[in-house]
Amino acid sequence: MNPIIETHQLTKKFKEHLVIKPTNFTLKKGEICALIGKNGAGKSTFFKMLSGQISPSSGDISLFEKTGNEQEKVKKRMSFMIETPAFSPDFTAHQNLEYYRIQRGVIEKERIPQVLQLVGLEKEKKKKFKDYSMGMKQRLGIALCLLSSPDCLILDEPINGLDAKGINEIRRLLVKLNEEKQITILISSHILMELQLIASRYVFIKDGEIVEDISKEELEEKSQKQILVKVQEPSIAAQVLETVYPTIQYKVLTENTLMIQSHVNQGGHINTLLIENGVHVLEFRIDTFSLEDYFLELVEGESYDELSKK
Ligand SMILES: Nc1ncnc2c1ncn2[C@@H]1O[C@H](COP(=O)(O)OP(=O)(O)OP(=O)(O)O)[C@@H](O)[C@H]1O
User: Which residues form a coiled coil (predicted)?
Assistant: First the structure.
């Protein structure tokens, strides 16, 4: 499985405030893992513990299967962008990277043109930092992370504040780094839509606790159509469905409506089945449930009913 990061019962308390509840998390080699949570959910605190910027209140962190002092050797295989790096406004991209190259002891001078090319800034390398767009600034931040040729990138909200074009550029860059350079990526955002479908895994964090950890495929499945059936006898309908489809997933909503989230392609049969078993079907429709709604329900606790009224 080659875990790059593993945390075991990791917690962080600021005074009496438990900001990260006991967290078991594994980042596997090759993943683009998205950590999604509202502002204040604990994303930065979690990343800062991984980087060593702050120490955990309890629990363990292993990096590349190393713990304690042995971690120092492997830490250079990871690069973190937790806060926007301080770049000099009057320096060009090249000059800014050169400053950090020397400071960080990266010997190969040729890394600078290489990373500028990787992030798509080679044509802009003579422009001063202050004349860069937000997206270009963020890409320069990622270029800085890449200077040391890491195997793993950890990026805290790199898309925050970018326009659609900037978001798209960062998305494409991350996929390229992952696919072409085999860099494992852990990235956070407070908006699922920003990372939608570029990540191979989505971890949702709410009030310092992981509330869902699902693959891209599972997330896609959740966004697929679902059946809403309004019936006169919801308990009989549920019984019929469970007998014929033991693995069926459904919820009973208000007003006698069943929301069926699996077996959606069996819609026709489900309708017939209910009618044949004496259930009065008052309404039957196949509906879509967007990923945004799913995310809102998960992290904000809004019910489907509230969402469908919007
Ligand atoms: N140094 C600190 N001292 C006290 N409380 C802190 C400290 N750092 C963070 N917190 C609190 O911890 C909680 C989680 O903050 P954190 O910055 O990790 O969240 P986040 O998910 O990264 O949010 P954002 O997207 O707004 O950065 C918040 O309630 C925050 O106020």
Answer: none
pLDDT of residue 304: 42
Gap between the Cα atoms of 167 and 192, Å rounded: 12
Q: Which range among 58-62, 109-113, 145-149, 223-227 shows the weakest confidence by mean pLDDT?
A: 223-227
Ligand 1 atom nearest the C-alpha of 208 is: 14
242 CB neighbour count, 10 Å cutoff: 12
Please give the class, per CATH, of domain 225-288: alpha beta
Pick left, alpha or beta for residue 89 (phi over 0 → left; psi -120 to 50 → alpha; otherwise beta). Answer: alpha
Q: Which two tokens stand for residue 130?
A: 């202050």
Nearest-angstrom CA–CA distance, 231 and 306: 20
State the pLDDT at residue 245: 95
SS3 state at 89: coil
Q: Tokens 């390229």 correspond to what residue?
A: 176
The pTM (predicted TM-score) of the whole model is 0.79
How many whole angstroms from 273 Cα to the centroid of ligand 1? 51
Which residue has the CA at smallest separation from atom 8 of ligand 1? 45
Average pLDDT of the chain, as a whole number: 89
**SS3 state at 202:** strand
Distance 19 CA to ligand 1 centre (A): 7
What are the helix (H) ranges across 82-201? 93-103, 111-118, 134-146, 164-181, 192-195
Q: What is the DSSP letter of 265?
A: G
Cβ-contact 170, 138 below 8 angstroms = yes
Among 3.40.50.720, 3.20.20.70, 3.40.50.300, 3.40.50.1000, name the CATH number for the domain at 3-218: 3.40.50.300
161 lines ligand 1 (CB under 6 A): no
In sequence order, the 6+-apart residues with CB closer than 8 A to the CB of 90 are 128, 129, 130
* Cβ atoms within 10 Å, residue 309: 7
